[in-house]
């Protein structure tokens, strides 16, 4: 099996690129417009609300840092979802794998106290990815062997993971004190903040580097995006993944094991979600507690769909949802609009991206008619 | 201890817990039989649960709450019908969007209507239909009566509605023209189209019916069981209902029976939590039980059950 592209390399068709980028952008614009309409009907001022949201997401370097902070796990979860979607697998339970990744990172981080950072950081990341993959493994096997729908099984595993973590942080992993949470990770197991990499003098000279809580996990996420892109585009693993997604029967006939590819795809998807949990624990909270993820695994679905499952496009899509999430608090504070409107906008984006097929369908119908009339 | 666990109210609780699952599962059965996947049951149920409480709080009449819950379920499922039938979107993706939308809309409305997130004020839950006296101190007859009364005659209206709906839907699916067409829609929509019956209309009706049933499931949750609405209170029940539908082999009575199994697991875990002190197992493990059972059931039994052939495939008229 060669890892060649499925289509012969054509000269860059700017119209098709514009269409590919245009429809997601149109979806976002439409979703924000309808969101504004809902705010207006509910008696809020949408302009003030989005101004506050923009301020909270991009207004200051610190605000932009918060956007980066929220985008980091979204990139990773979005990559996981996108990788699964490419094999026609819907890992709706990424949130559960994310929990297990966070759990593995927190547990191992506490175990490795006293180790230097170049030992503990890679080990924590590896452990989180393994934990995420392991949590996806049973749904993967069930899907591959008997066709049990991964939407149901991964969802069930999400609830199981949540209860497991909520038990561990009140039980075996609980730190002394009233609050149900683990102890603080040693500094060597924390992902440092971006601004801590620069000297005070540099920060004075370049204040845009004062990114507040944004941490170096964003680089982990960006590297992961490039790796997933390379894997999908240039490796046999990625080729098989896409082949099974396009047409499992053809893939099977072509000598690809659909079952084995399904297992690998869901586990890799889980590993990426696990990594998302790890960066959240290692970069933001530095400990584990049962509310450490604000639904990043679920928002990752919207990220992947908006990015049309392209690993590089996942980055801007995650930045968008990261900005909505970071600015949502400011919006609620300054314009008094319930933050829940963000969830509504998120759902609308998914609707429009999913219904995008109809637009291209109509365009094709129109073209067909035109050509048949011309002929 | 066993005598304390195995009591009439354990089985009564099983029947109670099974009700929202069963209603949603039968909704899922009807929907999938028509060829449309409905993973939005979770979100639809949540909307029904909220609408039921909101209208009951506003009017003081829980019956209007039930009507509102059903209408809310129909309304939000109409979005799913439009995107997946008319726009031919990916049905699982559309369902996911509905679930997120439901979380957002109920949370948003909650804050603008009641000024705070979390949980609404309580309403008076709907009382049980029958109230017979019984006790287990007497002889054989009075003990039997005590069990029958405890298990079957202690319920609220929607619990009985669910049982009736299960039988009626089962009968209708296999004995009416609607049922025949419904099943054909999911197996071979082209054939239905060929004889002049509208695939779009048939599927629309099925999706709206599933919305009504999932909305009713939500009403049962808030108006009969809990008495208030809490954000995301459905807690995966919509997905368990989907598993019940599969376990029940896409039949209404099968869905109901499978829901009874999950309902029993839920009732048992609640009952066992009372004995937490004696068993010394953390409560979280009990709470996991229904979800673990769902996976086990899907893993063990379902392998050989095959869904409608055309399920999930948008229909394109030629």
Characterise the protein shown here.
The complex is a heterodimer of chains A (375) and B (318). Chain A has a domain at 72-315: ABC transporter involved in vitamin B12 uptake, BtuC. Helices cover 72% and strands 0% of the residues of chain A. Chain A has 15 helices and no strands. Chain A has helices spanning 14-41, 46-58, 61-86, 94-111, 117-146, 150-168, 200-205, 217-234, 236-246, 248-253, 258-285, 296-306, 314-335, 341-354, 356-374. The radius of gyration of chain A is 22 Å and the shape is globular. Mean pLDDT of chain A is 91; it is low at 1-9. Chain B is an all-alpha fold. Chain B has a single domain (2-122, 156-304), classed as ABC transporter involved in vitamin B12 uptake, BtuC (Orthogonal Bundle), CATH 1.10.3470.
Features:
A: 375 residues, mainly alpha, ABC transporter involved in vitamin B12 uptake, BtuC, globular, disordered N terminus, B: 318 residues
The helicity of chain A comes to: over 70%
CATH architecture of the domain at 72-315 in chain A: Orthogonal Bundle
Number of separate helices of chain A: 15
CATH architecture of chain B: Orthogonal Bundle
Order of helices and strands of chain A: HHHHHHHHHHHHHHH
Class of chain B in CATH? Mainly Alpha
First-to-last CA distance of chain B: 65 Å
Itemize the secondary structure elements and their pairings.
The complex is a heterodimer of chains A (375) and B (318).
Chain A (H helix, E strand, L loop, with lengths): L13 H28 L4 H13 L2 H26 L7 H18 L5 H30 L3 H19 L31 H6 L11 H18 L1 H11 L1 H6 L4 H28 L10 H11 L7 H22 L5 H14 L1 H19 L1
Chain B lengths: L1 H4 L2 H26 L7 H19 L2 H25 L4 H24 L25 H13 L4 H19 L1 H11 L1 H6 L4 H28 L10 H11 L4 H23 L1 H4 L3 H18 L18
Helix pairs in contact in B: 2-6, 2-7, 2-10, 2-11, 2-12, 3-4, 3-5, 3-10, 3-11, 4-5, 4-10, 7-8, 7-12, 11-12, 11-14, 12-14
């Amino acid at each position: 099996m060669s890892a060649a592209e499925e289509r012969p390399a054509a000269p860059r068709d700017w119209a098709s690129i514009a269409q590919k980028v245009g429809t997601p952008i149109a979806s976002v614009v439409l979703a924000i417009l309808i969101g504004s309409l809902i705010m207006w009907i509910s008696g809020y001022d949408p302009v003030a609300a989005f101004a506050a949201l923009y301020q909270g997401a991009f207004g200051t370097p610190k605000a932009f840092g918060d956007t980066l902070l929220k985008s980091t796990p979204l990139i990773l979860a979005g990559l996981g979802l996108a990788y699964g979607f490419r094999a026609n697998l819907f890992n709706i339970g990424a949130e559960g794998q994310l929990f297990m990744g966070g759990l593995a990172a927190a547990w191992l981080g506490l175990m490795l106290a006293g180790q230097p950072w170049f030992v503990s950081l890679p080990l924590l990341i590896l452990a989180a990815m393994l934990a995420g993959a392991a949590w996806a493994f049973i749904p993967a096997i069930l899907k591959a062997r008997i066709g049990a729908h991964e939407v149901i099984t991964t969802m069930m595993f999400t609830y199981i993971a949540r209860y497991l973590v909520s038990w561990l942080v009140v039980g075996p992993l609980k730190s002394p004190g009233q609050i149900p949470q683990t102890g603080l990770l040693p500094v060597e197991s924390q992902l440092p903040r971006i601004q801590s990499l620069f000297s005070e003098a540099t920060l004075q000279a370049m204040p845009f580097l004062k990114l507040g809580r944004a941490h170096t996990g964003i680089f982990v996420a960006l590297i992961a995006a490039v790796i997933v892109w390379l894997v999908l585009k240039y490796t046999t693993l990625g080729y098989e993944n896409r082949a099974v997604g396009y047409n499992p029967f053809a893939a099977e006939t072509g000598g690809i094991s659909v079952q084995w590819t399904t297992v690998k795809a869901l586990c890799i998807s889980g590993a990426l979600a696990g990594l998302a949990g790890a960066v959240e624990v290692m970069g933001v909270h530095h400990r584990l507690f049962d509310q450490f993820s604000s639904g990043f695994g679920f928002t990752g679905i919207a990220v992947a769909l908006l990015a049309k499952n392209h690993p590089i496009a996942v980055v801007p899509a995650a930045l968008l949802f990261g900005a909505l999430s970071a600015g949502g608090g400011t919006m609620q504070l300054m314009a008094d609009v319930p933050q829940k409107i963000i969830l509504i906008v998120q759902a609308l984006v998914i609707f429009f991206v999913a219904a995008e097929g109809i637009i291209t369908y109509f365009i094709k119908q129109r073209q067909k008619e035109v050509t048949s009339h011309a002929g | 201890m066993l005598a304390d666990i195995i009591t009439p109210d354990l089985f009564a609780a099983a029947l109670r817990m099974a009700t929202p699952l069963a209603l949603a599962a039968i909704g899922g059965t009807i929907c999938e039989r028509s060829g449309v996947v409905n993973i939005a049951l979770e979100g639809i149920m949540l909307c029904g649960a909220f609408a039921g409480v909101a209208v009951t709080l506003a009017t003081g009449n829980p019956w209007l709450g039930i009507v509102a819950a059903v209408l809310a379920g129909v309304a939000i499922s109409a979005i799913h019908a439009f995107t997946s039938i008319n726009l031919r979107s990916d049905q699982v993706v559309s369902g996911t969007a509905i679930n997120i939308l439901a979380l957002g809309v109920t949370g948003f409305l909650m804050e603008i209507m009641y000024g705070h997130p979390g949980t609404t004020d309580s309403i008076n839950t709907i009382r049980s239909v029958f109230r017979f006296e019984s006790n287990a101190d007497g002889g054989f007859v009075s003990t039997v009566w005590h069990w029958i009364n405890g298990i079957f005659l202690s319920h609220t209206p929607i619990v009985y509605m669910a049982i009736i709906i299960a039988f009626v839907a089962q009968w209708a699916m296999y004995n009416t023209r609607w049922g025949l067409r419904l099943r054909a829609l999911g197996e071979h929509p082209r054939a239905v189209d060929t004889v002049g019956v509208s695939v779009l209309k048939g599927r629309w009706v099925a999706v709206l019916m599933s919305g009504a049933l999932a909305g009713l499931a939500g009403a049962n949750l808030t108006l009969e069981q809990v008495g208030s609405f809490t954000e995301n209170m459905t807690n995966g029940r919509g997905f368990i209902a989907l598993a019940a539908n599969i376990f029940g082999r896409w039949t209404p009575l099968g869905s109901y029976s499978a829901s009874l199994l999950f309902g029993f697991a839920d009732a048992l875990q609640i009952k066992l939590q009372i004995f937490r002190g004696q068993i010394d197992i953390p409560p979280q493990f009990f709470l996991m039980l229904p979800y673990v059972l769902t996976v086990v059931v899907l893993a063990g039994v379902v392998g050989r059950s095959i869904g409608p052939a055309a399920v999930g495939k948008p229909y394109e008229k030629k």
